[in-house]
Amino acid sequence: MSLAGPIRNISDTALWVAVYRAQESERADAVFRDPYARKLAGDRGTQIAATMPFAQRHSWSYTARTWLVDQVIEREVQHGADMVINLAAGLDSRPYRMQLPASLRWIEIDLPDMVNYKQDVLASERPLCTLERVPLDLKDTAGRRALFQRLGDEAKRVVVVSEGLIIYFEADGAAKLARDLAARSSFRYWVTDLTSPALLKMLQKNIGAPWLMPVRR
User: Fold this and answer.
1) Which helix (DSSP H) or strand (DSSP E) does residue 28 occupy?
2) Which residues pair with 107 in a beta bridge?
3) 217, 144, 193, 120: CA torsion to nearest 10
4) Which domains does the chain have, with CATH numbers?
5) What is the pLDDT of residue 171?
6) Whole-prediction pTM value?
7) What distance in Å separates the CA atoms of residue 16 and residue 38, rounded to the nearest whole number?
8) 132: helix, coil or strand?
9) Got the DSSP string for 35-95?
10) Confidence of residue 212 (pLDDT cuts 50, 70, 90)
11) pLDDT tens digits for 157-167?
């Protein structure tokens, strides 16, 4: 999807958000350290962030989300999770930066261009767990169901993560995704974030985000 303004397509949002992880990581009192964020964001991510002063003022929310999801993943891995599935993984670098057991399987799913870009940037780095990247549009219902079935059969205790994903789905599409996840008995937890209608409307107005789902009353 091509967009007007500084963000050309959906994948550009991953470059943009990576800037906020980099900024947090560079603080003396950072709540997490992501040594790969600046490299992943690149010049393009820095340029996008510079055009969005409204988003910069609220960058704390991305920091909080990252930290909270870190805590949930850490807890569930300690409790025996053997697989993490990151839907629309973007430029998340948790398999490289978190203290994870080598036996853990980490599955990243995203659009092909994003998967290729990330593989290129991190080609010289080594993840701490077993990492698999899957190029897939999550709106491809048949494709995601086949993937969920395969992964569900290969693991016993799965944590599913999605950050900043649901806002790209209509209500019916989000419900179908939730049902597809619930259909797999080994998928124990789904860690996600929700955006209220008021916040969504504010984002559309202040950031200029035509790719977000319209607010319905």
Assistant:
1) none
2) 85, 132
3) -130
4) 64-192 (3.40.50.150)
5) 87
6) 0.88
7) 10
8) strand
9) TTHHHHHHHHHHHHHHT-HHHHHTTHHHHHHHHHHHHHHHHHHHTT--EEEEET-TT--HH
10) very low
11) 999 999 989 88
Angle CA(60)–CA(25)–CA(44) in degrees, nearest 5? 80
Residue 147 contacts by C-beta under 8 Å, 6 or more apart in sequence? 109, 134, 136
pLDDT of amino acid 200: 67
Amino acid at 74: E
Q: What is the spatial distance between Cα 45 and Cα 208, in angstroms, rounded to a whole number? A: 16
Find, among 38, 6, 40, 44, the residue nearest to 23 by Cα.
Answer: 38
Joined tokens for residue 148: 């969920």
H or E stretch at 189? strand 187-192
3-class DSSP state of 135: strand
Beta bridge partners of 83: 105, 158
Instruction: List the single range of 95-99, 172-176, 194-198, 204-208 with lowest mean pLDDT.
Output: 204-208
